[in-house]
What we know:
By secondary structure, the chain is an all-beta fold. The radius of gyration is 14 Å and the shape is elongated. It has strands at residues 3-7, 10-12, 18-25, 30-39, 46-51, 57-59, 67-72, 77-82, 91-101, 104-109, 113-117.
Amino acid sequence: QVRLVESGGGLVQPGGSLRLSCAASGIIFSINAMGWYRQAPGKQRELVAASTSGGTTNYADSAKGRFTISRDSAKNTVYLQMNSLKPEDTAVYYCNVNIMTVGGLRPYWGQGIQVTVSS
């Protein structure tokens, strides 16, 4: 069974940086497309950054120039580097990863991690 565990969230001041990690464990043949989403209180979950299996990336307008999605295939880990953080980035962040495992290609979600940007 595949499991995703997120880490790296927390409280940061405006203008600061955080790097979120999403580590996959279990029977993993490969990591394909991946994405980071966030959900603020009272709002719908939204896509922040995504990457195809070929490495093509896509970012929400609010994240462009500040956030970077990446992966370390050897560690089965995906990352979201967040710079120049703003209070409006405050949300629970979720990774979503398509993983080739026993039974085929399947999507998995992380448990969610809180990011709070506040002075």
